[in-house]
């Protein structure tokens, strides 16, 4: 009989437990990526900009599920290091973000270290557990995401 069938409720704070897990997982990735001088958030930002091509900051923030001020804070050191550049947009008020050649090279180097961290997580947790975790996270994100439409 499952715990919910027996009437048992989850104990503890889900937010706290998730934060504990993300901190621990981040430690593995951060240790590997530190060898390239990047943090995991910076590697992710370079990867998304590379995938989307020159992109407006608003679209980049939406894709990364972060607010504009967090994006700006995360972009600043990458722009200062010459890994990203902010270019004029279609009009005077708009901008776009692009990855530089130096950014591409650093991201490629970091990708090897990211892969080493991912392989370690897969070994420690087991591939089946990682796949199940990914599926559970994706399902939870979908359930907790605000409705995109107001058709009701």
TrEMBL record:
InterPro entries: HTH_MarR-typ, MarR/SlyA-like, WH-like_DNA-bd_sf, WH_DNA-bd_sf
Gene3D superfamilies assigned: Winged helix-like DNA-binding domain superfamily/Winged helix DNA-binding domain
SMART domains to which the protein is assigned, alphabetical: HTH_MARR
Annotated HTH marR-type domain residues: 11-142
Transmembrane segments: none
Superkingdom of source: Bacteria
Protein name according to UniProt: HTH marR-type domain-containing protein
